[in-house]
Amino acid sequence: MSDITSFSQPPQPQTTNGSYRRVGFELEFSSLDVASTAEAVARALNGSAYAKSAAKWLVDTELGEFKVEIDWQFLQRIAAEQGEKAYDEAWLDSLSQAASIVVPVEVICPPIAVNALDSLDALVSELRQAGAKGTDESIIAAYGTHINPELPNLEAATIAAYMQAYAVLQWWLVEQHHVNTSRKLSPYIDLYPEHYVRQILQYDKVTITQLIDDYLSANPSRNRALDMLPLFSHLDEQRVANVIADGKVNVRPTLHYRLPNCRIDDMRWSLADEWRIYCTIERLVQRPKALAELCAAFLAADRPMLGVARQPWVEHVSKWLKENLA
After folding, report:
1. Where are the beta strands (DSSP E) in the chain?
2. pTM above 0.85, yes or no
3. Which residues have a Cβ under 8 Å from the Cβ of 273 and sit 6 or more positions away?
4. Sequence ranges of the domains in the chain
5. Given pLDDT bands bounded at 50, 70 and 90, which one contains residue 96?
6. Backbone angles phi, psi at 106, to 5 degrees
7. Count of CB atoms within 10 A of residue 39's CB?
8. In this structure, are residues 56 and 76 in contact, taking their beta carbons and an 8 Å threshold?
9. DSSP state of 14
10. Cα 84 to Cα 290: distance, rounded to the nearest angstrom
């Protein structure tokens, strides 16, 4: 497979064992039912789609297994209880189609090597042509794109660096992604509180246990723009479960980056662009001295009782990135 791609490549594209890092994407949208969505995925990727229930289809492709689900726990539970026969029941089929109008349908991609992401361009195009409507379609559902990148390794220092890079950039990232107002106001993508940002920016040597405990103390929820619960649950599931009892946490050795919109119906929108913006974090992580400099600047900008002024900081980051990471 060619290494030439329209998707940005992270400066560290491989894990410490030499394999290409993998990344998963989740796309949320409406106006398509699950079956039509699965068929569109199959057309885009030369795959084979089949129903597990009225609420869930699978698509087998060369890239792996794609899942297409209605994001409605109640409907999924009913379908799961009925098993394969659920799709044959007219009432559940009708309910599934009706639900596609008011709740998101999710396409959950398998982990894909970072040098093979170009295949997803065809996926987005096919879903758009099929009639998928994204973020701007609903002021309630707050449809988004989730990015789940594998890290180069799972050492505490590496994880801390990714968290620091995100934390010091989070206000800037919101602007770069042009996060929809309804999504900003929703509870799903809360930013890290400023007191926690100050805490993690001062990490020197840190352990996995400290990372997890500090995170859970300040962020006892999966509703964060950079949700660390899947990764921390992978590392120490019981420690996380002792604080957060949430069946929606998907245990996996990746970050869970939830900031981007899913403007899938907009011809100008590109999954590659959202990934490119995320990769600013990757680039900063691979420049430890630059990361330390930006962290120190944030801490120095703190004002007693007031914190850091958000817009001046965003402007500082924009200028600093052009001068240091361009």
Report:
1. 22-29, 48-53, 56-61, 64-70, 105-108, 112-113, 145-149, 226-227, 256-257
2. yes
3. none
4. 20-133, 154-249+270-326
5. low
6. -115, 135
7. 19
8. yes
9. B
10. 54
